[in-house]
Design brief:
By secondary structure, this protein is of the alpha/beta class. The protein is 45% helix and 17% strand.
Length: 174
Amino acid sequence: MDVFCGIDWAEGHHDVALVDDTGKLLAKCRINDDLDGYRLLLDLLAEDGDTAETPIPVAIETSRGLLVATLRQGPRKIYAVKRRYVGRRFVKNNRLNHVGHLWAFASLSGSSGADSHYRRRRAGGDWHMQALRHLFNRMLGQLHHCLQTRTPFDETVAFPLGAMPVPTQAVADI
């Protein structure tokens, strides 16, 4: 029997579920984002057959954080699952995600400031989607500022030169 672990990641705690290959729920619990929570997770996995030779794979909805970093230290496979792939009914603000992606992507050809910000993020090590998400968050923050202060959008204010250090390496893989 194959067992799989799924973790719903949150800021202060995580919900854990273990299921078998037929989808039957074997166990579930809530763990804290600390050492005690990690120990509880390991105990739960061990109860359902987790060993050093046959570790139970874990799917978690983020690829960062203390829990993920700790899990990666061992031999088990860790799968980062994007929220939008889990299922539409679980995704909040799905439309905002799509609009944000389109808005950021379209701004690359229409705004030299947005394009240079994106390129600096990519040169700094961000993947394409990370750079787009960061660009969208920056544009959203600028929109919020403009609405709060009742000022028109100014690209030189939104994307000032030198706001983010320009990496020395060229951006050839964009």
